[in-house]
Specification:
The structure holds 2 protein chains of 2 kinds. Chain A contains 15 helices and 2 strands. By secondary structure, chain A is mainly α. Chain A has one domain. In chain A, helix 2 packs antiparallel against helix 8 and helix 5 packs antiparallel against helix 11. By secondary structure, chain B is mainly α. Chain B has a domain of about 220 residues. In chain B, strands 1-2 form a two-stranded antiparallel ribbon. The N terminus of chain B is likely disordered. The chains are: A mainly alpha, B mainly alpha. At the A-B interface, helix 6, helix 12 and helix 14 of A face helix 4, helix 9 and helix 11 of B.
């Protein structure tokens, strides 16, 4: 009976503090749709972070999940007139299935090969979505996604959509927190730290990586599914290599392996995007430039640096009485 | 996000002159397509061997390889408009881009040695955006045309069939470059250091050799090879700023099929991929792009590290 309290005790302040911050986000942001995008990209990056930050695998084809989620939901809603929950389930299901197949093949190679293979598979999906006009709408995108209603609430209303995404974001963040503290979380970190050692002490590293990849895909698929509902349209660009680049950018800027990293990264990315577009048309130059600067000089990301600064401050504080005791030696 | 290239097909479908046309398939057509595959293959061989050399020696995956291919094409066309001599520009363009590659290694990649293995990959991803956007600013969003020089225009009689002279030149140029690179790696002192470094970097350094300098040189060489591929293909495809994006992925597929770090693997896989694309285009043009990924999956399932990879 004490199991739920155990888990909630384990959730630290970061999770609880993120709820009120995200709840008021649409009121401090220039417009609500932007805040909704923060949640969608943040969710996508949270999944990416589980894979890169905690399992140590760099996927360069995460757009596959995002696109499968978006097209899965979109196609079910448009072609089969499926109910909302079924559409979303279908989107996430497509992402899981894709993750299983891509993960099985791509994980046959490790490290950078894995990155390139995931990229290659996302390119195949882009190609399919692009060429298969009759089914996906080709480069015109999939049009006619109906307005979704939840409990009588109209999701075309920006604030309703925001809080719809907010619920999913909080649930999935909570799930990520549980996952990382569960034995499985220890397993993925063991694989990240030293794969050979993890295998030696009995972990099936390959399976651990595959499961982590699929879980990461659930986040990507859900984010894609929400993106489809938010935009009421699926552009073929969801599979584009730029989408891969965006989630990598968000994660690196925010800080990999941190809880707040994906949210902060998404906020910075989207605000930067809006501000830059007011000033100039060449947005990709800024993305590339900022990414290069972060890789070269701040590769722990914004949140990584803040956390590092807090830790070193605490350590220094803790060290002062100790150094006083040993000073006499 | 707004992407200016939307609406234009990102796939180099115009690379093969026969794609999409309904032609009765005779031995002659098949032979012609095989030769076209070879000309395409020579481009893949140069791209993949550059990537593979760089990866084999310094464990850097150069994601900007496609951008350098694109820069090579633009550098070639730009110098051609200034100087007017096809042959000189075919040499100068890749040298300029190769020097840019050396600068990139010196300023960006060198500080990342010894950090996470994927950092250079992320850095070159960032460079990709920058290069593509700079070219868009300098040369505009649209494509630029380039034409085949007079000396290489028209058809050449190979004895058993007529073949476009320029494509024949691509095959010859590819073969010459591959032989030169092979001689460089296998018959020169620097090449010996490269081969030793691929096996064991630390040991080479312990022998008192400045391997960092060799790395820089090889990085420049790999980039110059990419630029040369771009310059060679420019006269038959035309130029767009995004032309390198799909190319780099195809080059990676070639490297994965051949085995990362294997020069021989790049040659065999490059020709194989070129041929497979050309033949698929003959029978089912829409699948030309997907089929190389299928080939890659088969190789992945059947071998441990590509056709010629070790371990």
């Amino acid at each position: 009976m004490n199991r739920p309290t155990e888990i909630s005790q384990k959730l630290d302040w970061q999770f609880w503090i993120s709820i009120p911050i995200l709840a008021i986000l649409p009121f401090v942001f220039p417009y609500t749709a932007l805040a909704t995008n923060v949640l969608i990209f943040g969710l996508f990056a949270t999944g990416f972070n589980i894979l890169l930050g905690y399992t140590g695998q760099l996927s360069f084809g995460h757009a596959s999940f995002y696109g499968l989620g978006a097209y899965g939901t979109g196609l079910l809603l448009v072609k089969l007139k499926a109910p909302l929950w079924l559409g979303m389930l279908g989107g996430v299901g497509a992402a899981v299935l894709g993750g299983l197949i891509i993960g099985y093949l791509a994980l046959k190679r490790s490290d950078v090969y894995f990155s390139l293979l995931t990229l290659a598979f996302s390119q195949v999906l882009y190609f399919l979505a692009f060429q298969w006009r009759g089914f996906t709408g080709g480069d015109d995108g999939l049009r006619g996604v109906p307005v979704a209603h939840v409990f009588g609430l109209d999701l075309s209303e920006p604030l309703n959509m925001y809080y719809f995404c907010f619920v999913f974001f909080i649930i999935m963040s909570y799930f990520a927190r549980i996952l990382l503290r569960a034995p499985f979380g220890k397993a993925i970190r063991a694989v990240k730290e030293n794969e050979d050692r993890a295998i030696t002490i009995g972990f099936n590293a390959q399976r651990v990586k595959l499961i982590s990849f699929i879980i990461s895909g659930i986040y990507g698929g859900l984010a894609g599914s929400l993106f489809c509902l938010h935009l009421r349209f699926v552009p073929v660009d969801v599979f584009h290599w730029m989408t891969n680049g965006e989630v990598v950018f968000i994660s690196i800027i925010g800080g990999v392996g941190t809880y707040f990293g994906p949210i902060v990264g998404a906020i910075v990315f989207l605000l930067l995007h809006d501000i830059v577009q007011l000033i100039m048309t060449r947005w990709e130059l800024v993305v590339g430039g900022v990414l290069v600067l972060f890789i070269l000089f701040f590769n722990r990301g914004i949140v990584g640096y803040i956390e590092g600064a807090i830790t070193s401050y605490r350590e220094r504080k803790a060290l002062i009485p100790q150094s006083g005791q040993t000073g006499g030696r | 996000m707004n992407r200016p290239e939307r609406g234009r097909s990102p796939f180099p479908a115009d690379l093969e002159i026969l794609s999409g046309e309904v032609i009765p398939i005779s031995t002659e057509v098949l032979l012609l397509q095989l030769f076209i595959g070879l000309s395409l293959g020579s481009i893949y061989v140069m791209m993949a061997s550059g990537l593979s050399l760089i990866f084999g020696l310094m464990r850097v995956v150069n994601f900007a390889h496609g951008s350098f291919y694109m820069l090579g094409a633009y550098a070639f066309v730009f110098t051609l408009s200034l100087l007017g001599n096809f042959w000189i520009c075919l040499i100068i363009g890749p040298i300029i881009v190769g020097l840019l590659g050396i600068f990139v290694e010196w300023s960006g990649i060198r500080p990342l040695y010894g950090t996470e293995e994927y950092n250079p990959l992320l850095l070159t991803l960032g460079l990709n955006y920058i290069f593509v956007d700079i070219i868009r600013i300098l040369f505009g969003l649209g494509g630029i045309g380039s034409s085949v020089p007079e000396a290489l225009d028209g058809m050449v009689n190979l004895g058993f069939m007529m073949f476009p002279k320029y494509r024949f030149f691509m095959i010859v140029a590819g073969a010459v470059v591959v032989i030169l690179v092979w001689l460089f790696i296998n018959k020169t002192n620097i090449g010996m250091v490269v081969r030793a470094g691929t096996k064991d970097n630390e040991m080479v350094q312990m022998l008192g050799i400045n391997i960092k300098l060799v790395w820089r040189l090889i990085f420049g060489l790999g980039i110059a090879l990419a630029a040369l591929s771009g310059a060679l293909i420019a006269p038959i495809t035309g130029l767009v700023p995004e032309m390198g994006m799909f190319m780099v992925i195809e080059a990676f597929v070639v490297v994965v099929i051949g085995g990362m770090g294997s020069f021989m693997g790049s040659i065999v896989a490059g020709i194989l991929v070129g041929e497979v694309i050309a033949i698929t285009n003959l029978f089912f043009a829409q699948a030309g792009t997907v089929v190389i990924f299928v080939l890659m999956v088969i190789v992945l399932l059947a071998t441990k590290a590509g056709l010629f990879g070790e371990g």
